[in-house]
Amino acid sequence: MNEGVRPGFATLLEGWRQLERAGRVVLRETLVGSPVRSLHYVDLRRDLPHQVLLSAGVHGDEPVSGWSLLSLVRDGLLDPHFGYRIWICTNPTGLDLGTRENIDGRDINRSYVRGGLTPEARVVMRASRGERYALALDLHEDFESEGFYLYEPVVAQTAPYGRAILREILEAGFRLQPLDEGFDLGYPSVERGYPPGAAAALRSLEMGRVLPDIAAECAYFAEGLPLTMFLLRHGAKRALTFETPRRAAWDDRIAMHRIAVVTALAQLERVEGG
């Protein structure tokens, strides 16, 4: 991909259409709100006992995430022991605009709450009703980071996925992002009027890994949850968010996402038994 050209949603969608024409996937389309737009998803092997949700593109200025999902399916890298629901891009208007927000100026990843605060969130929420996922993975990019990192909410006092993922990222020759109180993760800060140490109640930090406390985060984001936190409350056993460094080369960012997803699925097979 030419780094100087921002690929729009139509180009990404055509990549999925090519897979559909080859008989490898069936794209499903749902109309969203006004102005009219669409969200697309793919279901694979939905009859299997353990299901995984994959999503990308909730922030339109993080374009590589959607292309990473496409490459995983195109290259046959998804573990065949599991079924999948794949949201190919949950903010297509933001992707075309190159903005974090959708065309309405809303951050979709702060809109998952009862009733949904954005039309895109309402579509995903309706489609998720009654679904049960062993694992949900949401792909992102970070403009400030120099290396890869992930969010792994602690469930039942355990977080069994992140360390294996980070090890594989390092072994592939990529950097991890050091995380400390000086790195902006979007949590409360003194500059925003919060008392010192307020963020520590929400999460702990390791090299390359943020370990959120689910209950504390849900209270903090009460106005509207990120997708992964919503899914943890409504149908997912585990949910991780992957962040690649926006400053890295396009192909390197895709490679990091591919490693992270493939390793997470390998861990899921160990945890759930395939």
Notable traits:
274 residues, nine-stranded mixed β-sheet, 32% helix, globular
Protein architecture, described:
- It is a single chain.
- The protein is α/β, with parallel strands linked by helices and 274 residues long.
- It has one domain: Aminopeptidase (3-Layer(aba) Sandwich).
- The protein is built from eight helices and nine strands.
- The longest helix has 23 residues, at 250-272.
- The protein is globular, with a radius of gyration of 18 Å.
Which secondary structure elements does this structure contain, and how are they paired or packed?
Layout: H1 9-21, E1 27-32, E2 37-44, E3 51-56, H2 64-74, E4 83-87, H3 92-97, H4 119-128, E5 135-142, E6 149-151, H5 162-171, E7 203-206, E8 209-212, H6 214-220, H7 227-233, E9 239-245, H8 250-272
Parallel strand pairs: 3-4, 3-5, 5-9, 6-8
Antiparallel strand pairs: 1-2, 2-4, 6-9, 7-8
Helix pairs in contact: 1-2, 2-8, 5-8
In short:
With 274 residues, the protein is α/β, with parallel strands linked by helices. The chain has helices at 9-21, 64-74, 92-97, 119-128, 162-171, 214-220, 227-233, 250-272; strands at 27-32, 37-44, 51-56, 83-87, 135-142, 149-151, 203-206, 209-212, 239-245.
Quaternary organisation of the protein chains:
single chain
Question: What is the helix/strand order?
Answer: HEEEHEHHEEHEEHHEH
- The fourth-level CATH homologous superfamily is Zn peptidases
Question: If helices are DSSP runs of H or I spanning 4 or more residues, what is the number of helices?
Answer: 8
Low-confidence stretches: none
Through-space gap between termini: 35 Å
Globular, elongated, flat, extended or rod-shaped: what is the shape?
globular
Gyration radius, rounded: 18 Å
CATH topology, what is it called? Aminopeptidase
- For the record, the CATH architecture stands as 3-Layer(aba) Sandwich
Number of domains: 1
Q: What structural category do the secondary elements indicate? A: alpha/beta
Q: What does the average pLDDT come to?
A: 92
Strand residue content: 15-25%
User: What's the count of strands?
Assistant: 9
The biggest sheet, with number of strands, parallel, antiparallel or mixed sense and barrel status, is: 9 strands, mixed
CATH class: Alpha Beta
Helix content: 25-40%
